[in-house]
């Protein structure tokens, strides 16, 4: 029987699926539900140094093949998240805390707090397309990405992941900047900058006007990004963006992803999506004669 177990930047996962940041990752109880559903790891919603209320409604709109959201990074602040981890109690799988900040130095402070309260790794959100003065405003700048990674690595021993934005000319260059600065892995991709207009009123639907597109609509973009990054760096690449079925997961892994994150698909399919993906992946590997996931990582690059 094929093995689904993988190791990503020192984290051992029973299978290569992770809960993506921004979905069900704000409370201990929801994290517990995701764990029980079979995810190999969980990523929290993005946490900052201080509590943040986010944007006014509407913050999410459904579109063909996906969602456009502009939540505004609402969160209780890193210092108030300890209780949520306690409620999740004895998680048993890696917990990766997504964090955001407004400066490279602030990233280091938030990361240190995250590790202190129980994070097994941190994922630097330098790619949110709609949060002013943070997110993609940092993640589109090679120097700032590098500084965020360097300052964070100096403060924490836990693995540091960097979630990259697709809203750039060359995502591989961003990945290389992260790797040069000491990142242990990169996650690609975050949402694609988008907007929706109500034709009856002629006004943008979202309270923030612009947001980020997620779901099946961005999957081909994400696959291309994974493929390019895999050829550019030696650190693990975690795939994210429109994964809904086991076939999607296989495609990402073949493009070079060591693991995959699932987010928007939960809204359409429920938490059963984790088991559907892992069961399908296991069957595929068995039929093809692969012994483990690592045997198909990056297979599309081989002659």
Unreliable segments of 5+ consecutive residues:
none
Into which percentage range does the β-strand content fall?
Answer: 15-25%
What would you call the structural class? alpha/beta
Number of strands: 16
Using only C-alpha atoms, the radius of gyration works out to: 18 Å
Number of helical runs?
Answer: 10
Q: Say what the CATH topology is.
A: TIM Barrel
Query: How many domain units?
Result: 1
Distance between the termini: 27 Å
Give the class-level CATH name: Alpha Beta
Task: Enumerate the strands of the largest sheet in spatial order, edge to edge or round the barrel.
Answer: 3-4-7-8-9-10-15-16
Under CATH, the homologous superfamily reads Aldolase class I
The CATH architecture name reads Alpha-Beta Barrel
Helix percent band: 25-40%
C-alpha geometry: globular
What is the residue-mean pLDDT, rounded to a whole number?
92
What is the H-and-E element order? Answer: EEEHEEEHEHEHHEHEEEEEHEHEHH
Largest sheet: 8 strands, parallel, barrel
């Amino acid at each position: 029987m094929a093995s689904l177990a993988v190791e990503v930047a020192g984290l051992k996962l029973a299978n290569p699926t992770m809960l993506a940041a921004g979905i069900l990752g704000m409370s201990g109880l929801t994290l517990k539900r995701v764990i029980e559903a079979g995810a190999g790891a969980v990523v929290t919603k993005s946490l900052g140094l201080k509590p943040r209320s986010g944007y006014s409604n509407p913050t999410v709109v459904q579109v063909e093949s996906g969602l456009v959201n502009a939540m505004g990074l609402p969160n209780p602040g890193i210092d108030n998240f300890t209780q949520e981890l306690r409620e999740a109690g004895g998680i048993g799988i890696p917990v990766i805390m997504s964090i955001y900040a407004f400066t490279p130095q602030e990233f280091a402070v938030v990361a240190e707090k995250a590790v202190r309260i129980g994070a097994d790794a941190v994922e630097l959100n330098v790619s949110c397309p709609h949060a002013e003065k943070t997110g993609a405003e940092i993640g589109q700048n090679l120097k700032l990405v590098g500084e965020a990674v360097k300052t964070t690595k100096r403060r924490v021993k836990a693995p540091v992941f960097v979630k990259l934005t697709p809203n750039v000319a060359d995502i591989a260059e961003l990945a290389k900047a992260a790797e040069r600065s000491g990142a242990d892995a990169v996650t690609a991709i975050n949402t694609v900058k988008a907007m929706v207009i109500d034709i009856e009123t002629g006004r943008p639907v979202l309270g923030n006007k612009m947001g980020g597109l997620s779901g099946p609509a961005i999957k081909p973009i994400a696959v291309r990004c994974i493929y390019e990054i895999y050829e550019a760096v030696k650190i693990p690449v975690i795939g994210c963006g429109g994964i809904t079925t086991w076939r999607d997961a296989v495609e990402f892994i073949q493009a070079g992803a060591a693991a995959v994150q699932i987010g928007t698909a939960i809204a359409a399919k429920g938490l059963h999506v984790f088991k559907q993906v892992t069961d399908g992946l296991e069957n595929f590997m068995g039929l093809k004669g692969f012994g483990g996931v690592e045997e198909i990582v990056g297979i599309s690059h081989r002659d």
